[in-house]
Amino acid sequence: MKPYLREQKAFSFDDVPENTSFEAGYLVTVNSGWRSIRPVIDTGRCVGCEQCYLYCPDGVISIQNGKAVIDYDFCKGCGICAKICKIGAIGMEAEHK
Amino acid sequence: MANPTAEKLSRDEYFYGHKACAGCGGSLAVRAALKVLGQNAVSVLPAGCMSAVGFNFPQLCFSNNSIISTFAGTASMLTGIEAGLRAKGYSDFTAVGFAGDGGTADIGIQALSGAIARNDNIIYICDDNEAYMNTGIQKSGLTPFGARTTTTPAGSNIHGNLRPKKNMFEIAAAHGIPYAATASVGYITDFIKKVEKASKIQGTKYIHVIAPCPTGWGIQPDETVEIAKEVVDCGLWYLAEYENGEFTLNHKPKDFSSVEAYLKKQGRFKHLDLDDIKTIIASRDKKWAYIEKNFAYR
User: What whole-number distance in Å separates Cα of residue B48 and Cα of residue B108?
Assistant: First the structure.
């Protein structure tokens, strides 16, 4: 499990908690708009060594069927994964061509 | 191709969707540590980047129980959480705090010192980005010599910060703490190993992890991990542990990489001249002579 995106709703004053507790892992906005470049996985070259998964500050890379998969909703395009990938299976591409 | 470090970690994410800058080293440290400690970690975050980016109501990015503490009170809140949960009959939990360098070495040092003195069963992780980054890059007690910050500007007379970095690791160790360690997000496997080890030790645990800040250090977002590796490779930081009254060095670079190359990659050190770099190299060599003498190498 991880924090996941909820339906957007307007919080009225009564919905705002009076004390400091609220549901954990409650996301309402994505981070994809921060990106100017995006990592793209070359699934032919990816061997699933998981280095990118370990070093991603946002935790957006998971391994599915032995290959890295990126959650583009929350990737900020920092490019750490592309640098850490020794076999060059991750390339950075411009977000708007 | 299985990665042994990744296999040990929880596949769940506990710090996700946060608003930290792209390439943030601190968020990588928090994420990795929580993946080791799991769902039953109760995390405490004082004022600083990690609380500012993790709790923007209603965007709440921790999926374990987490709370913001006062700036000075990370360790005392950990003490309270640990005692409270224990009194309620819980035993399967870890109280873990993530404070920045200012929140640890300056503002939170007395609370931390008190917790270590009481030997409370907590883990305290200091994610050290070497200045008060959240408020706009002011000098902290852990800012290294020569670094430019907004309160130690670089001019023709004074070249940035005049004072060396506080030795927080050995200050924690001097309390006779059960476990203290230094780490770097550039060596994430080593950091994960240390958090895992700390979670199995009874008493206070202190881990000091270097977590570069692209904004404050003047580096590109994709260079965070590289620079965190390089600071260890050039000898300006070291990976060590303190346990049972003994210091152990975990990683010994065969030859140090160039200090000048490390410094010149960063905007905060761009102004340094050759004399400053010589001073930095001399202090590094002095430190390593001390390490050779007093640390065992395993």
Answer: 12
Q: Are B131 and B141 in contact (CB under 8 A)?
A: no
**Residue A34 at interface with chain B, using a CB cutoff of 8 Å:** yes
Is the pLDDT confidence value at A97 over 80?
A: no
ipTM comes to 0.93
Identify all chain A residues contacting B63, using CB atoms and an 8 Å cutoff. Answer: 1-3, 24-25
pLDDT band at B179 (very low <50, low <70, confident <90, very high): very high
CATH homologous superfamily of domain B9-297? Thiamin diphosphate (ThDP)-binding fold, Pyr/PP domains (3.40.50.970)
Q: How far is the C-alpha of A23 from the C-alpha of A16, rounded, in Å?
A: 12
Closest residue, chain A, to B219 (C-alpha) = A78
> Touching check for B12 and chain A: CB below 8 Å?
yes
Is residue B221 within 8 angstroms of chain A, CB to CB? Answer: yes
- How far is Cα B31 from Cα B185, in angstroms, rounded to an integer? 11
Separation in Å, CA of B88 to nearest CA in chain A: 19
Q: Is it true that the peptide bond before B58 is cis, omega within 30 degrees of 0?
A: yes
Best CA proximity match to B159, nearest among B174, B150, B173, B146: B146
In three-state secondary structure terms, B134 is coil
- Chain A nearest-CA distance from B219, in A, is 12
Cα A38 to Cα A46: distance, rounded to the nearest angstrom = 17
DSSP character at residue B32: H
**Facing residue for A24 by CB, picked from B19, B25, B63:** B63
| Chain segment B236-273, per-residue pLDDT in tens | 999 999 999 999 999 999 999 999 999 999 999 999 99
Q: In chain A, where are the structural domains located?
A: 4-94
Measure B276 CA to nearest chain A CA, in Å: 30
Is residue B232 a contact partner of residue B32, using CB atoms and an 8 Å limit?
no
- Identify the closest residue of chain B to A52 by CA–CA distance: B6
Q: Would you kindly state where each structural domain of chain B is located, as residue ranges?
A: 9-297
Fold of A4-94: Alpha-Beta Plaits (3.30.70)
